[in-house]
Amino acid sequence: MGALMQVKIRDACPADAAGILAIHNHAVLETTAVWSDAASDLASRLAWLADRTGRGYPVLVAETAGEVVGYASFGDFRPWAGYRHTVENSIYLDPAVHRQGIGRALMETLIERGFSLNKHVMVAGIEATNIASIRLHLSVGFREVGRMPQVGCKFGRWLDLVFMQRTLMEEVAR
Ligand SMILES: CC(C)(COP(=O)(O)OP(=O)(O)OC[C@H]1O[C@@H](n2cnc3c(N)ncnc32)[C@H](O)[C@@H]1OP(=O)(O)O)[C@@H](O)C(=O)NCCC(=O)NCCS
Q1: Is the CB of 139 under 6 A from ligand 1?
Q2: Residue pair 80/92 in contact by the 8 Å Cβ criterion
Q3: Please, which pLDDT band fits residue 171 given cuts at 50, 70 and 90?
Q4: Per-residue pLDDT tens for 53-90?
Q5: How many angstroms separate the alpha carbon of residue 126 from the centre of ligand 1?
Q6: In this predicted structure, what is the pLDDT of residue 169?
Q7: Helix (H, G, I), strand (E, B) or coil at 59
Q8: Least-confidence region, from 8-12, 93-97, 170-174
Q9: Span 88-139, pLDDT tens digits
């Protein structure tokens, strides 16, 4: 928990795209946290950042010693108008800083931002064996609302999806 004292959570700017890219590509190439096989590039991360912020959605980074060590964001859950009060989150950290409270700090700020934007529900879609993410979400007030067996595949195996959600009107967990 000592490292948490030196971590700053702030809005991302274009200069953070390279740090975001490195963390994103590690998740793509080494994990089943993101269900893509294709590494991204800087232009694509800059475009993603511009798209999210252009829609008024937050992209947060965790910075320590001047380095981006994690990021979190949310966007539309589904594109149709009836879903406009619901967002879906994403959160990724450099493996070197796992389990130091940084994920929880990012999530708590993300939840506050969702509340500020008058969003009603935040959804998380999590690969079923990703216990770290499931427990992180439980720790900030999410609950499991569904499991979809074998809806994904990566690294030659089927992946199950766990949906979790949290109503943002409820008091932010501390
Ligand atoms: C999931 C992730 C963001 C968690 O971030 P983190 O900074 O390591 O988590 P924190 O230290 O804030 O932990 C908060 C709580 O989550 C739970 N948790 C986190 N990591 C855990 C682990 N490896 N095993 C069990 N519980 C874990 C614990 O309840 C923890 O509280 P505690 O430390 O008081 O017990 C991080 O592991 C990560 O980036 N993983 C790879 C990318 C990923 O899976 N993203 C989510 C995609 S859905």
Answers
A1: yes
A2: no
A3: low
A4: 999 999 999 999 999 999 999 999 999 999 999 999 99
A5: 12
A6: 81
A7: strand
A8: 170-174
A9: 999 999 999 999 999 999 999 999 999 999 999 999 999 999 999 999 999 9
Q: Ligand 1: distance of its center to the CA of 46 in Å?
A: 26
Q: How far apart are CA 66 and CA 90, in angstroms?
A: 22
Distance 136 CA to ligand 1 centre (A): 5
- Phi, psi torsion values for 42, nearest 5 degrees: -60, -40
Contact call for residues 121 and 167 (beta carbons, < 8 A): yes
Residue position matching structure tokens 């809005």: 11
Q: 85 CB under 6 A from ligand 1?
A: no
Q: Is 136 in the pocket of ligand 1 (CB under 6 A)?
A: yes
Q: What is the pTM of this model?
A: 0.95
Q: Is 93 in the pocket of ligand 1 (CB under 6 A)?
A: yes
Q: How far is the CA of 147 from the centre of ligand 1 (A)?
A: 20
**Residue 74: strand, helix, or coil:** strand
Instruction: Name the closest-CA residue to atom 24, ligand 1.
Output: 132
CB 117 less than 6 A from any atom of ligand 1:
no
Supply 99's token pair.
């389990």
Q: Which two tokens stand for residue 129?
A: 């064996």
For residue 163, the surrounding DSSP H or E stretch is strand 157-167
